[in-house]
Amino acid sequence: MEQLSAGSKLDQAFEKLAEEKSISFELDLDTDPRSLKALDASSDPEPGEELTDEVAGLLSDMKFSVTVQSKKPIAESGEKDYVGMALKISNKDGDLTEYRVIGDYTYLRSDVNALGKAMGFPVPSVKDLPPEAGGLKKVLEGEWVKIDTKEMAKTSAEMGAESGAEPEPEPTLDAKTQKRLLEALRGTIAREVDFKTADDKDGSEHITATAPFRTLVTEFLGEIRPLAKHLPPGMELPTDKDLKDAPNAKVTADFTLKGGELTQVSVDLAKLAENAKVKKLGLVVRMRDGRTPKAPAGATELSMDEILGGFGAAMMDAEGFLEDEEGFLEEAA
Known about the structure:
Blueprint: H1 2-19, E1 22-31, H2 33-42, H3 53-60, E2 63-70, E3 82-91, E4 94-102, E5 105-110, H4 112-119, H5 136-140, E6 145-148, H6 149-160, H7 175-192, E7 194-199, E8 205-212, H8 213-224, E9 250-258, E10 261-268, E11 281-288, E12 300-301, H9 304-332
Parallel strand pairs: 6-12
Antiparallel strand pairs: 1-2, 1-11, 2-3, 3-4, 4-5, 5-6, 7-8, 8-9, 9-10, 10-11
């Protein structure tokens, strides 16, 4: 009875979310630098490509804030129904980068210096920019810029395509297929997941869902294989053979409901690492009131030619400076 009751409550909570036209949530990485470095080490990275302390610290402290808005309920929405999207990445020191897609434009702003320092790559200074790339000064100063979304998608496709090849259309997933995928997921969860419930003093309810990872994924993929022909090009499903070495440790997700509405989900993934040094590895999703993404005022419009030409020239100047400096040091030695 507890299984049926808990599963039904979760179903109803997700159905309420699916009926919304705007969804907002925050995603935190519940981890620490030591665990991330241990996880990276277990993947046997090439010499010089190991996760640095700076990047591990940056990743462990990241928070992602996401808003999606549609003209229709989310459950019924296809790609053309979405009218706004916003993503912000921040850490304890402030916002690192923000991205919004509204109308015909994509809006961007970043703390380029903070990202460059943490990721270990050189950042061109404003004085390195050629005169014709004056708009990129706004990027380096952390100001809002906007780019024609279609132009950006076209350029990205052309850069990724082989010489002379026609750019492939962006993969899409229609609303009907989305619904069938969701039904398959619900069926798999009903069969494979163990539920337990508990109440909090503040009136919220916790439902924990536990399942062996490989079994859950294998069963779900088995459910959706008949839908493979409806999936976008490039979305190939792994075979059971591909999954045979996947960890089958039990993973637990904790769902918090208040008034029947989902407010938080936390998932502990440490056991999947199969590494005793990975002590803390999880995800926490906190639901927020649906917001309306808005276009930032005063954004400077940039063309893709200006972006590629300006940054390309600036980076080449920076690389040339570094090469000259290395040559000078070698001659001095």
